[in-house]
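Take a record:
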Amino acid sequence: MNDPIVCPNCKAPIDPSWKVCQSCRRPVDKFIEQTMESNARQESRSELQALASYGAGGLALAGLVGLGCWALFKAAAPAEPEAPPVVVAPAASTAAATVAPIKPPDWRFVGRVYYLSDAKPAAGVDVAYETPNGKRWSASTDARGRYSVSVPSPNESYRVSLSNGGKPLAYIEDVPALPFRTRSAAQRRDVIEQARQSTLLHTPVTPDSLETVQDFALLP
């Protein structure tokens, strides 16, 4: 039996039909899909191993029953010329099922990019995640400003850069608890003014789950 599925972010139990965690509101549909596929592969492997064990045990039991019946027949039958010895071939061993190794899941950064001035989605923005040794993974935002970038390892730190047509774009990381796009126009203008008077520093990020959500607000 498989363990209940829990949210990779807040560890709360989640239903396989949910798209987002009801506790922390993180998207969980892809995580649920990958977990259920992994569980299905594990169950298939267990069934193959059980069938292999059952097959070997059944053959051995059949051999023992056959020998017992032959002994009873010989004891009850009248004396006859000695028959040639019966050679019982050993039961063929059941080969262990070969199970392909499970490919480790990708770690993904997902989110949206929007303009801080009017909170509208920013399409066609290149969102790149780069390691200190120069390896780079990127994706462009769609018409809704959404992106998804898969990276191979959760143990790396990644520097984020945003650009459009090769031109770097100034941005700030969104605040999950109170996204900038949900604030009033006056509040967003205050944030823009504060950003203009400050030096923008971006800390490298590391995935904290199979799907890490990061939103970005573009500065004018």
